[in-house]
Amino acid sequence: MQVAIIKYNAGNIFSVDYALKRLGVEPLVTSDKEILRKADRIIFPGVGEAETTMNHLRKNGLDTFIKELKQPVLGICLGMQLMCRRSEEGDTDCLGIFDAEVKRFRPRRHADKVPHMGWNTLTETGTPLFDGFKGGEFVYFVHSYYVPLNEYTAAVTDYIHPFSAALHKDNFYATQFHPEKSGSVGERILTNFLNL
Amino acid sequence: MLAKRIIPCLDIKDGQTVKGTNFVNLRQAGDPVELGKIYSRQGADELVYLDITASHEGRKTFTELVRRIAAEINIPFTVGGGIGELKDVDRLLNAGADKVSVNSSAIRNPQLIDDIAKHFGSQVCVVAIDARQTVQGWKCYLNGGRLETDRYLMEWAHEVNDRGAGEILFTSMDHDGVKNGYANEALAELGDLLTIPVIASGGAGRKEHFLDAFRLGKADAALAASVFHFGEIPIPELKAYLYGEGINVRQTI
Predict the structure, then answer these.
(1) What is the pLDDT of residues A131-169, one digit of tens each?
(2) For residue B35, what is the enclosing H or E element?
(3) Which among A10, B14, B141, B190 has the fewest CB atoms less than 10 Å away?
(4) Contact predicate B75/A15, CB 8 Å
(5) CATH no., domain B5-244
(6) Is B11 an annotated catalytic residue?
(7) Residue numbers of the domain that contains A66
(8) With the C-alpha atoms ordered B114, B118, B122, B128, is the resulting torsion angle positive or negative?
(9) DSSP 3-state of A141
(10) Quick check: B227 and B201 in contact, CB under 8 A?
(11) How many structural domains does chain A have?
């Protein structure tokens, strides 16, 4: 199986690369559309800022390209947010794969620190990404913006209020948390994605 | 609910883990990558690797080590020690670190915090503060605790927060290595003052000390070294204890 990681101006690409290698997969890290198109699985990682990243994707024609992919695609963190319709971060129009709007966390009390950073639990896990999950598994988050609950929500986490920890629509999967940094639970999610 | 974190800290010299008592008398405590893997399997929530080598050659060795850690460890890790400018941050993040910790260089040049936050995001910027109680109050120290500054802990922590740091790692030098508990009063004051997470450091000797850091000190995470390195407190046992006391910790086993 050939797994490709979309290479663009975002951080965090090494961690995903390393995580797949630990699972015995040798991913290609590339922005070459021909190679990406032929891959069996595609990972769209991301750490960074929405507006700058969307501009970069548009400039390289990756915006329409990603939307038209037919194989299973996994967006991670900013990758997931960019797969939504619009983000409050920089008031940015995004890819629109998921008809949802990305919002900024607004603290309700002093203890609500932003970014939401650390280990939190998954509930209502409802896609093959979470096969074998019982609910209550901990995964690692680092983010200041979130996707509200919507019809594509595939897992829920509670911080300040419940939000989408994962999304799923057709061949598009996405996680707000970092499976590549989520210990053995994260490895199960990546393995499930490879086994789709 | 967001879990309270348990963070083993590994001091690295010439590619090996060492741990001092009161910042001197270094003792060997194993291979950093192997140790990190063991901690990760035992349920550590993050790891901190501090490079205490001063030489240029040592920096290169450490960067290589960061690459090996990133390849083998499946939980987040922070690296620190000798980070003086943005290009050091860039080098370490490129080697695969998730966060960097700055200390003396941030006191000497506070703008570094703004720059790291702007270029790489607040979440990668941990500011470590070493402080000690003096007759005038809590004062900050430089160079691994050897040099007193004119900065006060609360005032500096507040500035660090405003400049865009993602977390504060507060070490009480009075408590470090003494194994008599964390500086819970100062921790609680920081927790009330700041809008970013606080990592408690210095003083862990028993499981109860971690509970106190979370309950009395309101810390978001607790860091320790020797109690983990020498097996005095096994992490699974610590987490089971904290969970039993009603602290929300990540259970892995």
Answers:
(1) 999 999 999 999 999 999 999 999 999 999 999 999 999
(2) helix B32-42
(3) B14
(4) no
(5) 3.20.20.70
(6) yes
(7) 3-88+100-194
(8) negative
(9) strand
(10) no
(11) 1
Q: What is the overall mean pLDDT for chain B? A: 91
| Residue A144 lies inside a defined structural domain of this protein | yes
> Exposed, middle or buried by CB within 10 Å (0-12, 13-18, 19+), for A149?
middle
| A65 CB within 8 Å of a chain B CB | no
Alpha carbon distance A75, A172 (integer Å): 8
CATH of residue A169's domain is: 3.40.50.880
Q: Which of B183, B102, B69, B221 lies closest to A15, judged by CA?
A: B69
The per-residue pLDDT for B18 is 81
Q: What is the pLDDT of residue B24?
A: 41
Q: Residue B15: its pLDDT value, please?
A: 84
CA distance B66 to chain A (A): 12
Indicate yes or no: CB of A19 within 8 angstroms of CB of B167: no
Which one of B45, B51, B98, B130 is the catalytic residue?
Answer: B130
Beta pairing class for B167-172 and B198-201: parallel
Q: Which two tokens stand for residue B83?
A: 């980070």
Q: Per the CB < 8 Å rule, is B5 touching A18?
A: no
Residue B205 CB neighbours (<10 A): 18
In a domain, A94, yes or no: no
Distance between CA atoms of residues B64 and B140, nearest Å: 31
Which residue of A113, A120, A180 is in closest CB contact with B195?
A113
* Rounded Cα distance, B104 and A1, in Å: 48
- Tell me the per-residue pLDDT of A92-140, one tens digit each, with 9 for 90 and over: 999 999 999 999 999 999 888 888 999 999 999 989 999 999 999 999 9
In whole angstroms, what is the distance from residue B91 CA to residue A161 CA?
A: 37
Domain ranges of chain B: 5-244
Q: Considering only CB atoms, which chain A residues are within 8 Å of B33?
A: none
ipTM: 0.91
Amino acid letter, B10: L
Do the domain assignments include residue A141? yes
Q: How far is CA B56 from the centre of its chain?
A: 23
Q: Is the pLDDT assigned to residue B28 strictly greater than 70?
A: no
Q: How far is A66 from chain B (nearest CA, A)?
A: 25
Q: Is B121 helix (H, G, I), strand (E, B) or coil?
A: coil
Chain A CB contacts of B220 under 8 Å are 113, 118
DSSP A25: -
